[in-house]
Amino acid sequence: MIPVTTQSGKTLALFGLGGSGMATAQALVAGGAIVTAFDDNPQKVKEAEALGIPIGDLREYDFSACEALVLAPGVPLTHPKPHWTVDLATEHDVPVIGDVELFANERKSLAPKSGFIAITGTNGKSTTTALIAHILANAGRNVQMGGNIGKAVLTLDPLSDDAIYVVECSSYQIDLAPSLDPTIGVLLNLAPDHLDRHGTMENYAEIKSQLVARSGRAIVGVDDQYCEAIAKTIEGSVPISVRRELDFGVFASGVDLTHAAPSGASNVATLENAQTLRGNHNAQNASAAWAACHLTGLKDSEIQNGLDTFPGLAHRMEIIGHIGDIVFLNDSKATNADAAAMALSSFEDIHWIAGGLPKEGGIESLRPLFGRVAKAYLIGEAAPEFAATLGADVPFEIAETLDNAVAQAHADTASGGGKVVLLSPACASFDQYANFEIRGEAFRGEVEKLNGFKPYGDEG
Prior knowledge:
Layout: E1 11-15, H1 19-30, E2 34-38, H2 42-50, E3 68-71, H3 84-91, E4 96-97, H4 99-110, E5 115-120, H5 125-138, E6 142-147, E7 163-168, H6 171-175, E8 184-187, H7 195-198, H8 201-213, E9 217-221, H9 225-233, E10 238-241, E11 249-253, E12 256-261, E13 264-270, H10 280-295, H11 300-309, E14 318-323, E15 326-330, H12 337-344, E16 350-355, E17 373-379, H13 383-390, E18 396-400, H14 402-413, E19 420-423, H15 436-448, E20 454-455
Parallel strand pairs: 1-2, 1-3, 3-4, 5-7, 5-8, 6-7, 8-9, 9-10, 10-11, 15-19, 16-17, 16-19, 17-18
Antiparallel strand pairs: 11-12, 12-13, 14-15, 14-20
Helix pairs in contact: 5-10, 5-11, 8-9, 14-15
């Protein structure tokens, strides 16, 4: 844990006692803050009270004596409307902040010489965060990884000047971190997402841009119009691309990464042996990781070794295993069409399991990739809508449930070779599963039951 000593003696309200909110409350108490915490869920309030966190109904709280409202990232700040605690704080001119803001200020106070790499983007930020941390750790650096990737940032080890903090930041966290100023900031890409929480695409892009605008060095993907415009506003930013050669920056062509500098361009890394970094989207992730690690001072050989040994992330084009030449991939994290496009564009002859709770636009944007799909197996609430979109262009069946889909996909691929069974839902999971992780584990469980299955790495 990182005790938040910079808030010692300050009177704070805290709302939201889920995973990160609970961790934040504990870190504030450990650092000496005078905290009053609350949640709309009575069970969460009981759990916090049992952990020794001071509890109080913030409807009856004196915000005039409060120095900040600490808001969990899952709680609405502005859209679709501010949470009632935000309204109360605003009425009393109380600033609203989050855990990343507390971390950033604590680092500046106690470990100003430490490295701080912050990563954001619509897609790929978790993989890039994990990849950067892996490359640095593999090269012998003292690395701490957390944030939106799953480990709350204030649960990391106590701050140290010799550490490098690699932190994934969601738009929600950036919105609650006005002092965020990483030594290296990475913005990968922008596409419509979370607009229910940010109102417009322009507002969403503005929030994301704040991370790189306040960075010591900025790395920005320039393959979409929003990021390209942001890159132009940041002096000295390092652009990355997987679509075109650059005069300056890092770009990918096939499996090769090239660093273009005023002194000339040179190939600096290859993804040829990086089995978990297939596809253009992972080339973008790898380009950003190379640029970030290069800025920290790593040698090309150290970065290459890290790329080659990266184990990948669960639920993100994760290779579960194989049955003969049939490969099973878990891409449950693909909760929208843009994310699913990354997996579909990486393979051919795909037996595609898709569906769940549909998002706006469905899978129409994936039509250019339908030729890569041998057959689709549709599950969840989205099945009828997806079936109508696929129409006569792609063979499909409505499997309804994941177990049916896996069984039928296996049966259809068992007589051939070199095929891919891919779970890449292009949907949220909430119609049948509590989250994408549980959905991915359910897929893994069904695949592991199949006769002849061998896990990834077992090539015998």
